Amino acid sequence: MDVIKIAVLGIVGLILCLIVKELRPEYASYISMATGICILLLATGKLEYLLDMVKKMEKYVPIDSTYLYTLFKMIGITYVGQFSAGLCKDAGYSSIAGQIEVFCKLSILALSMPILSSLLDTIQGFLT
């Protein structure tokens, strides 16, 4: 049911933007940002639930918490980057949106390097 609520919120925000854009185009971007922020705030509740479940699973299976926190950082970078790039695209600044996306991809790549290094060390340990 939460997906339906989010979808309805997004569609209502879209319709408001289309109506307001005819009368006051400068307010349409504010409505778009407010709608996006509301959806993002509602999504944080799901992320909080996921984090709690991962902590419960961590008790049963010995997983290095560094890997899990790195994964959550990557998810956060993805959400924030996609949200801000989408806002820039809506405002007509697709070149800035592209730069945000490139920076986020590079940040995720940089975060994943220690994990990749650890994986390669493990593989090397099996081969020797």
From TrEMBL:
InterPro entries: Spore_III_AC/AD. The chain crosses the membrane at residues 6-23, 30-47, 67-88. Keywords: Membrane, Transmembrane, Transmembrane helix. The keyword Membrane applies. It comes from the Bacteria. Pfam families: SpoIIIAC (PF06686). This is Stage III sporulation protein AD. It comes from Blautia liquoris.
